[in-house]
Amino acid sequence: MAMDHHQQHLQTFRAAISTLLFPLQQLINAPSSSQQWLSEKLMTRQQLQEDNTRLKEQELLLRVQLQKLDTLQIENIRLRQLLDSARRIGERVLIAEIMSVDLNPFSRQIVLSKGSQHGVYTGQPIIDAGGVMGQIIKTSPFSSIAMIISDPDHAVPVTVNRNGLRAIAIGTGTSAELNLPHLPNNADIMQGDLLVTSGLGGRFPPGYPVARITNVIPQPSAPFAKVTALAIAKLDHNQEVLLVWRNDPIQTAEKEDQTEPCTTVEQAEGVCDEFVDDENINHNAQTPSEPNP
């Protein structure tokens, strides 16, 4: 055995013996192999259904988890856009979630998850990553109600970013359309012009994007043109908004009780009465007077 261990004299003999014994090994293992094969082939229908159900449940669970990952990714993108918007603004801001939406077809209002305990005050502007969304009209300790700029009772003093022309953007009750009344037919405004907040009235800080002009239709039979715009903010698609504080002294809770309600159409028109008078004067100056007979 020692010589065979060192010189491998019997290796050929062992190989021959192994070849001869291989069928015997297979015969000895046959019962267990056959039992396993039969158990797999004779598996009951119920077991197959149970396995199928279990696998379907696991697949459903994995799909739900994948959907959550997609949702988290989209939410992360939205929050990054809001934070980027906050950095561009350079003012104090606070993110609030939209808790519910008013289903009244004649109004555009939302309920936010922040209230007076968080420093929210009546008249405070709200924006999203694109532009102005509206302003707070009512507060409670832990929630608040905001009116969207497309509400027919809402008005925003704006200017045309291209030339500084002042106007009023009034909600129409539709999802994102705004009207600009009291603009003379010869006003320097065109499709595609960007409208930003003017700061008049003290509600909205100046320079916030509001809308883009979509239609300018002169009306020769009327003193004013028909001008419409489309809001830049995603008024019907947001889940979070930014509450904005101005850089000037912030309104405190004591001042909140003295704060007027949100900017209405009449208030905005009062702010811009001087602008309308100026435009009418300019319009008359550009129209040559008829000679006396």
From TrEMBL:
Gene3D superfamilies attached to this UniProt entry: Rod shape-determining protein MreC, domain 1 (2.40.10.340), Rod shape-determining protein MreC, domain 2 (2.40.10.350)
A cellular component annotation (GO) from this entry: plasma membrane
Keywords linked to the UniProt accession: Cell shape, Coiled coil
Record has Lipoprotein as a keyword: no
A single GO BP: regulation of cell shape
Residue ranges of domain Rod shape-determining protein MreC beta-barrel core in the record: 98-245
Coiled coil: 38-89
Transmembrane listed as a keyword: no
InterPro entries (UniProt xref): Cell/Rod_1, Cell/Rod_MreC_2, MreC, MreC_beta-barrel_core
Similarity comment: family membership: Belongs to the MreC family.
Protein name listed in UniProt: Cell shape-determining protein MreC
